[in-house]
Amino acid sequence: MTITDAPKIITSRFGLEDAHTLTRYEATGGYQALRKAVAMAPATVVDEVKAASLLGRGGAGFPAGVKWGFCPPGVWPRYLVVNGDESEPGTYKDRMLMERDPHQLIEGVLLACYAVGCGQAFLYVRGEMALAQERIAAALNEAYAAGYVGKNILGTDFSVDVVLTWGAGAYIVGEETALIESLEGNRGMPRLKPPFFPAAKGLYLQPTIVNNVETLCNLPWIIANGGAAFAALGAESSTGTRMFAVSGHVKTPGVFEVEYGVTTFRDLIYSPVYAGGILGDRELKAFIPGGASSPWFYAEHLDLPLEKSTVDKAGSMLGSGAIVVMDETTDAVKACLRVVRFFARESCGKCTPCREGTNWLERILARILDGYGRPSDLDLLMDVSDNISPGIAWPPKQTTICPLGPSAVSPIASALQRFRPEFEAHLARGLQSRVPVSVSAPVRAAAAPAGSHG
Amino acid sequence: MARLSADNLGIASEIIERYPLPKSALIPLLHLAQEQDGYVADDAMVHIAELVGVTPAEVLGTCSFYEMFKREPVGRYLVNVCTNISCQLMGGEELLHHAEQRLGIKAGNTTTDGLFTLEDVECIAACTEAPCLQVNYRYRHRITNEEFDQMVDDLQGGRLDAEVPPHGTLARVRQSIPADRRAGAIAPDDDREPAWLVPPAEPDDEVAAR
Which helix (H) or strand (E) segment is A65 a member of? Predict the structure, then answer.
């Protein structure tokens, strides 16, 4: 097992009950990186982040420093939008960072604004995260009063307002152009890229940097300790440390900050330091390595390191750092249906292949599970999938504006390829008995919905 | 119910002036309306349209896209049980079924006393604490059927009032930017280079000394 002694970079204060207060944050080195940065030239701050090779932690894994460089020179104003709309199934890290150490995020936001020259920052928190909104509001109020945010920060000519804003329940808003639409007060539907790459034309069609919460939380450490120190951790393209949430059938599920690129899936799932192995010491059936959108992995992938390019080459992705473990008792068809149903419910409806396709995929899977499947259904699943993501390959091609549609294809391609006999068994059982199994038992009394128009 | 109250109108103006363009305040304002009435009333949408300078239809267009906005009254307590993959593996669907039995309603409905609305929701980012649920967006982790029943009893008895505000209230702390610390919203047509990026002009005598 490779349990490295890499320092905790972003979760260093998680053990402290009052880490969300300004007093505790300052007492543990908080806002020192900001003091250091404002004495540096903004371009030097950018260079440090580039030297760190910090990959974006939202899902796509694009280098943050490079993304910053895409802003067209001389076009002002620029905006920073913080993506705190964490909702990929299995993902559970940004919420913890926002709830437990909000000042660290605010300091990261300020460093990014200073480096890139953003005139205003918007911190977009997922609507359902009431405590995170509360903690960030309180932290911003403290930081304004202490002179860290707002006009003439720390007595310099660096001035920026950081505005807390929040969503209202839509997974698709995690896609950066949909997030911008939402922030403009619209329905959260993605924009066509090109031409609307946010760094060139984002919020109000101005250059806009959209960064994930975890990405920005790394900046204070990078500025305080240097980009080289960060790049010294990890392996190959994956530097520093990263948070992974391990959930599902494991003994000690949790969120762990580990050295990126070095630690393996086996370490995370089986080490007593982390998830502690499969519940009841049962066998592993499959695991989702990077959130619901990623193709599934199996026992033969356990020794792969958590390194972006290695996992990409193996046919999946680390995505948002969400590992969901399924043991041998799991019904692959049922699990597949649940993931597909998520994408069908969250499709924004803009592109036909996704809006219609995901819903048909859900219906076909549901009827297979209910015992009403048809022998032709397995081919039909692949046909519908192929219309959303031609070739059903990895990395996926798409007939849609954003990757949500193709994400619904991943679990189907995985489950059908690996567990086809289970699908066939459901079909055979259905042809014999026709007893639905996914229909829940009747409830005692059905009450009328309050406020329904009689 | 109704247009925004005088107090909420004050909060609304404060929110609007933080954004470069007023329409960006739409979602926070819809939350404010929902906090006031427990749901987003038609009159509130008309009022918000006036405040941000768009048509009521545009406000409805945005409002209807987002699941958290309820355009009809719901229960005082919105119980959201997660059944997504991590919770499903750990018994989320069984928990939802128990909740339906306990409350006597199917997911998507409200009890006749107006106290509870039950929903079957997507991932709420507490996957390592499965099965989990939220009551008015306050978390309950690794919940058993017995704990669910206890929670319902406690909510009915008002014993969780301090922890769980009525539906509509999210954060109980609001951002407030003091006037003397405010940097100001940056309009999209404000094309000045940020002050801290402009290299300081070198004093004349220093140039002369070279």
Answer: helix A64-68
Q: How far is A155 from chain B (nearest CA, A)?
A: 11
As a whole number of angstroms, the distance between CA A221 and CA A219 comes to 5
Put simply, the answer to whether A184 touches B24 (Cβ < 8 Å) is yes
pLDDT tens digit sequence for A76-122: 999 999 999 999 999 999 999 999 999 999 999 999 999 999 999 99
Residue in A77, A114, A187 closest to B188 by CB: A77
Which DSSP string corresponds to chain B? --SPPHHHHHHHHHHHTTSSSGGGGHHHHHHHHHHHHSS--HHHHHHHHHHHTS-HHHHHHHHTT-TT--SS---SEEEEEE-SHHHHHTTHHHHHHHHHHHHTS-TT-B-TTS-EEEEEE---S-GGG-S-EEETTEEE-S--HHHHHHHHHHHHTTTTTTTSPPTT---SS-----GGG------TT--PPPGGGSPPPPPHHHHHH-
ipTM for this prediction: 0.95
Mean pLDDT of A25-53: 97
Residue B68 to chain A, least CA–CA distance (Å): 5
Cα-trace Rg, chain A: 23
> Do B27 and A182 make contact, defined as CB atoms within 8 angstroms?
yes
Of A161, A166, A184, the CB nearest to B184: A161
Query: What residues does A81 pair with on adjacent strands?
Result: A122, A210
Residue closest to A84 by CA, chosen among A110, A61, A106: A106
A79 contact B CB<8A: yes
Contact in structure between B66 and A169 (CB atoms under 8 Å)? yes
